[in-house]
Amino acid sequence: MATRNGLLVSALSTLGFLLAGCAAGSGEPSGYTDSDRPGKQMKRGEFPGCSPSTDSNPTLIAGRLPKIPKKELRYGRHGFADVRFVVGESGNVEEVEVLRATVEEYAIEVEEAVANWRFRPAKNDGHAIKVQCKKRLSYSAASS
User: Fold this and answer.
1) Fewest 10 Å CB contacts: which of 11, 27, 38, 110?
2) pLDDT tens-digit profile of 42-62?
3) What is the pLDDT of residue 80?
4) Number of domains in the chain
5) pTM, entire model
6) Contact indicator for 32, 3 with CB cutoff of 8 Å
7) CB-based burial of residue 143 (10 Å sphere; 0-12 exposed, 13-18 middle, 19+ buried)?
8) What is the CATH number of the domain that holds 134?
9) Element (DSSP H or E) covering residue 62
């Protein structure tokens, strides 16, 4: 948590994927959450629920949380963005698409952050494979 301009910022980034085959996506986030400052490095970890099914899921090795737009912080709003992306055989994010977001400014921040994430690639039969994943990133900015 951080204090900025009299606001207590609680950036909640739901790092669980939209499971149920990820490509189909149930729309409900699941997994673990990382309550931390926007722009800070995310915790490393495995990302379940990508498609197609794999022997091992992609594992996040580097990436930052998206920044919360200043206007959202100022007014203490809550919001989210649903994003779909492809993790390639090299572990780089190859494609990013924001499917929906509460505000356009957050969609832009999410797209930029996700494009720079790095993964240990998913594997099937010991070989790195390309997978598509979905994720909901959410935030909450509450007045102090």
Assistant:
1) 27
2) 666 777 668 888 888 899 999
3) 95
4) 1
5) 0.70
6) no
7) exposed
8) 3.30.2420.10
9) strand 59-62
